[in-house]
Amino acid sequence: MDAFRGRSQTTKGIWIAKAVGIEPFTVVMDLEGTDGRERGEDDTTFEKQSALFALAVADIVLINIWCHDIGREQASNKPLLRTVFEVMMRLFSPRKTTLLFVIRDKTKTPIEYLEPILREDIHKIWEKVPKPMAYKDTPLSEFFNMEITALPSYEEKEEQFIEQVVAQLRQRFFHSISPGGLAGDRRGVIPASGFSFSAEHIWKVIRENKDLDLPAHKVHIYVQREKSTLDFSLFSEPCYFFQIMVATVRCEEIANEKFNWLASDKDWLAIEEAVQTGAVSGFGKSISSILKNYLSEYDMESTYFEEDVKNAKRQYLESKALQLVHPAYVAMLGHLRSGAFQGFKTRLEQLLGRGEPFAASVNTFYYLLYNVFSILDVAIEQANWDASKVREKLNRDIEAHVSHVRSERLSQIVAEFEERLSAALIDPLEALFEGGGANTWASIRNLVKRESNKASSSFLRAIAGYELDQSTVDKMVNNLKEYARKLVRNKSKEEAGKVLIRMKDRFAIVFNHDKDSMPRVWTGKEDIRAITKEARCESLKLLATLAAVWLEEKMDNIENALYCGLMENTEIMPSLAMDAVVSGSPLASSTWEEVPPENTLITPVQCKALWKQFKAETEYTVTQAISAQEAYKRSNNWLPPPWAILAMIVLGFNEFMLLLRNPLYLLVIFVTFLLGKAVAGLIALSTRFLPTVMNILSRLAAEGHEQAPNTKHRDSQSFKNQQPQSDSESSSVPDSSVSTETSSEYSSPQVRHRRSAHTQEFQIS
């Protein structure tokens, strides 16, 4: 048999051949299988005949049994062995035969457990077989030797299978008739020359025996019953046996007939079709009525048959009928479950939409639905089917839906409160980081604690209607608080990325404004060095604030380390200088002391690099302030030095006294002073007025040069008449006029003109 082409019968009939390579001379006989589908369920005559022939002829009979069939009634060929044993005891004289049971496809069950079961089954069959009086108490071992072996699966363990078959099982057939062999104690040996005749005679006797043709008996009895005549000449058993057989055949025919009518019943077909699309009202009553009718018809037609057989076949009919309607029953239950589930979903959505508490809505409608849901309308009277699985499935569906809706709504609530926390924390956090100082993280901790507690209280009120267990509530509240802490960490990382900009802004504010937040005027009295250090200290505080996340109340030593490592002089912060105990460079590390890596925003090495860049970028501001201070000093230093003033007083005392004695000198000096002031004003005015006049004259000169080429076509007289005018116009332009041939602008402190615009103005004028 080719396994890749399917499974079918390979041995048909009885095949006999010489065994190759086995000593002494051995004949092998291969029989047709006893459970093939080719002969069907009822045509078992040849199977029994061939089995009896093998037991009557062979010295060793190999019986192939599937490992999983041990302990089964039909699959292990118990009925066949029982029939063969009965006929053998009547037809043939007992002889010693070896029964070698070969268990194929052995499982993990040890053969030590399988062998006793198989031996016990064979002994029970032997004890129940009717025997002649001479052999009534004869044990099985008197006529049969039982040997049991097991083989692994050929498909799963091919190499092991071949090895055992060839090396072990085949080896047992060598010299099998020798003392101690498989057939060493055989009896009734027939010479080889008479084997052919003996086998032919045995087969003839077997073929003529009617006990091996039970299906033929049933048909014969049925036919004779219709003719109201009974022929008992074929039977050796009591008449009751034949009554059983007749009842079996006839009741089975009636049952099959009623089942076929049921399968084609119009009412049943209509219900079967309708239940595929939806629930059918009165399903259980309708099906019960149809089944009851056909079972009643069976009872009427089988009234006069043997009671046990009639009842057995009635159960057979009822079982087949219930198998027929069971798919429709399952479909009907499915429709009921689906309808109840959809109703629950719709009702729950309506209740929640009106603002009802979640748990109360679920519990009220759930118990109502579970109690209302009934399968009484689906129950079939003849069936005792348990519909609890449908209830369980409905319960699982409802619980899954409730869990989904609960999770979805809780997720919405959590998202809403997380959004509230974000709105309540982001702006204050940004303001606190912008004004970072020694108490920044303490303020942040207070802010987070206050907002988290406020959000937690509101959150507990929001989820109160869900009736969650305390552990779940605690977990959700903790998650909400952890979200607030996560916001702080994320905002800290964001601000740490802008720390250099923040430091420069802080430096500019402190450096350029006094304590009253008024802009500084560098008059020369300010101590720029002290102001610079103060501004840098404030910037350093901001850097220390953003160097790490401090959500736990621990000692923050980062500011001390930064002051000791970055500030050249700690006189401004003497307390910090006294508290800082540093061995080596405090910033020569990639981690902060007592700060976990996940809370580190800026490492000490990065702080050092940022500080270096910060100082470089703020150096210009300090330089500008120093320059402004020096410029202010120069602009206000118009008095001579004190020693010069003293010399002038001493040396000019005579002249001063002369002026006092003659007031006319004072008047002349005063008038001269006024004229000097007036001249200075006129000069300042002329510096603004003169460029404007020059621009106008330059444009007039340029316009005159442009009009000159246009007059060349006129006659000479006309040119002469106009020459004085042109000369006068030309002479009116000073030598210092500026050319305007380019498109550059001419400007004064009060007026800005373009050449093209003024050219157009002059043309219009």
Automatic annotation (TrEMBL):
Low complexity composition bias: residue spans: 726-749
Transmembrane feature ranges: 666-690
Chain residue ranges for the region called Disordered: 704-765
InterPro entries assigned: G_GB1_RHD3_dom (IPR030386), P-loop_NTPase (IPR027417), RHD3/Sey1 (IPR008803), Sey1/RHD3-like_3HB (IPR046758)
Coiled coil in keyword set: yes
Domain GB1/RHD3-type G: 1-186
Keyword Nucleotide-binding carried by entry: yes
Molecular function, one GO term: GTP binding
Coiled-coil ranges per UniProt: none
GO biological process terms on file: endoplasmic reticulum membrane fusion
Domain of life: Eukaryota
Gene Ontology, cellular component aspect: endoplasmic reticulum
Keywords of the record: Coiled coil, Endoplasmic reticulum, GTP-binding, Hydrolase, Membrane, Nucleotide-binding, Transmembrane, Transmembrane helix
Biased composition range(s): Basic and acidic residues: 704-717
Family as reported in the entry's similarity comment: Belongs to the TRAFAC class dynamin-like GTPase superfamily. GB1/RHD3 GTPase family.
This protein's name: Protein ROOT HAIR DEFECTIVE 3 homolog 2
Organism whose genome encodes this protein: Striga hermonthica
